[in-house]
Amino acid sequence: MSLLRVESVSKRFGGITANQDVSFEVGAGKIVGLIGPNGAGKTTMFNCIAGYAPPTTGEIWMNDIKVSGMSPEQCARAGIGRTFQVARTFTSMTALENVMVGAFLINKNVGDARQSAARLLSFVNLGQFRDKPAGSMTISEQRRLAVARALAVKPRLLLMDEVMAGLNPTEVRETVDVVLKIREEGISCLIVEHVLEGIMPIADAIVVLDYGKKIAEGSPEQVSRDPKVIAAYLGDE
Ligand SMILES: Nc1ncnc2c1ncn2[C@@H]1O[C@H](COP(=O)(O)OP(=O)(O)OP(=O)(O)O)[C@@H](O)[C@H]1O
Ligand SMILES: [Mg+2]
């Protein structure tokens, strides 16, 4: 049974078609990779799904709730969490306080928010940064902090936009371990990523966008053998 259903979504900005008639699904407890060259429309798709920019046409459903047209807050309440391609870390606040910002969205009780944030920091292996300013953390640690903050809203689907970009192989592995732990919790993950060695080994399915259109979909093996996908990536070099 699918948790998220994207149905014929198109998104236009004036004359630019950032997404064109894109359909795909994310099953409950699955990891789906959304890949494609720069400007393919991946972040735009996240903005459509999470309520930051409604689709021009098409519909998006979370189970039996139509989320297309809803505000980001309503989408969050429907179970959609996200991280941002451009970090929104509060660098002078502590790691704990950053995660509490997420926790407060669903629980105004300070003690509860603190407890839930502390648990999530440990979950993403950042327990030791609890009382340190987020600005003192590495990029890799700040990305996992953003994941913890998104998890604090208790999503059933987590959208992660390039959380592995620019990381070294050790950091990619640490991030992959966290993604696998998230799936073990039963939370579905939709992951936009250029770091294919991070996403390909763990994805249950891959969706490929190019110039706003879906050009391929299937297992990581199927997609990486697809001539259209190879051409899209080579054309990008
Ligand atoms: N708010 C906007 N207004 C106008 N054009 C936009 C807007 N947002 C995105 N676009 C355009 O839509 C297209 C898709 O952009 P998008 O950011 O979704 O790509 P992407 O796949 O996330 O790329 P990248 O891998 O570089 O992050 C681009 O041509 C971009 O310039
Ligand atoms: Mg993007």
From TrEMBL:
Q: Can you give the residue ranges of the ABC transporter domain?
A: 4-236
Q: What is this protein called?
A: Amino acid/amide ABC transporter ATP-binding protein 1 (HAAT family)
SUPFAM superfamilies documented for this protein:
P-loop containing nucleoside triphosphate hydrolases
- Give an example GO cellular component term for this record: plasma membrane
**Phylogenetic lineage:** Bacteria, Pseudomonadati, Pseudomonadota, Betaproteobacteria, Burkholderiales
The entry lists its GO molecular-function terms as: ATP binding; ATP hydrolysis activity; L-isoleucine transmembrane transporter activity; L-phenylalanine transmembrane transporter activity; L-valine transmembrane transporter activity
Q: Output the GO biological process annotations, alphabetical, semicolon-separated.
A: D-alanine transmembrane transport; L-alanine transport; L-isoleucine import across plasma membrane; L-valine import across plasma membrane
The record's section on Pfam families has: ABC_tran (PF00005), BCA_ABC_TP_C (PF12399)
Task: Decide whether keyword Signal is in the record.
Answer: no
Name its species.
Undibacterium pigrum
| CDD domains listed in its UniProt record | ABC_Mj1267_LivG_branched (cd03219)
- Keywords from the UniProt entry: ATP-binding, Cell membrane, Membrane, Nucleotide-binding, Transport
